[in-house]
Amino acid sequence: MGPHKVRQMMKSERDLARRRFRRQRNQNYLAKSGPHECVIVLDHLKPSYNIGKIFRSAEAFGARQIHLVGIDFFDPAPGMGAFKWVPAIFHKDFFSCYTDLVKKGYIPFILEPGKGLSITQTSLPLKSAFIFGHEEFGISFEPDLFPKIRRLTIPQFGKSQSLNVSVAASIILYEYIRQHGRIDKKSLSS
Fold first, then answer.
1. What is the C-alpha to C-alpha distance for residues 131 and 68, in angstroms, rounded to an integer?
2. Per residue in 117-140, pLDDT tens?
3. Residue 159's closest CA among 111, 112, 113, 110?
4. What is the pTM of this model?
5. Where are the beta strands (DSSP E) in the chain?
6. Is 114 helix (H, G, I), strand (E, B) or coil?
7. Domain 3-189: which topology?
8. 3-class secondary structure, 109
């Protein structure tokens, strides 16, 4: 298969992903917040694969919502329909997302290998906002310019000291639920 055919197939797949996104985006307007107060922030992630999987984990763990920074579309297919159920908030830049969350009382956290406190030794606040950056380039902002941001790390014992972003999101959501797993009936009905 020649390079022209490969590009043509990739464009066709991108077009299908955009159609899936538009269809599910319309359903997302009706999505209800999950029962837990934690939120996920996705900062300029690639539009394929990981975002949909993170929506799937957020739905499974009952996250309140997902904030997407600098992301205008993504392929929802890997999320197995979860994009329809978890409210998505779109932001053009990180500053608007940060100010919105801090104003609502959220404590923002970035996860960095080997930096910050271990998630297993940190008491996560109810209103936690977990920020994940681009798969290759990381976060798009200088964290020291945002004084409320705290650093966390997921303990790792291998040599690579790197986790896939969707895996890291699942781990932090699990730890959050482990610490705050009780849900009262009132929060489920709202």
1. 10
2. 999 999 999 999 999 999 999 999
3. 113
4. 0.88
5. 39-43, 65-69, 88-91, 107-111, 117-118, 128-133, 150-153
6. coil
7. Alpha/beta knot (3.40.1280)
8. strand
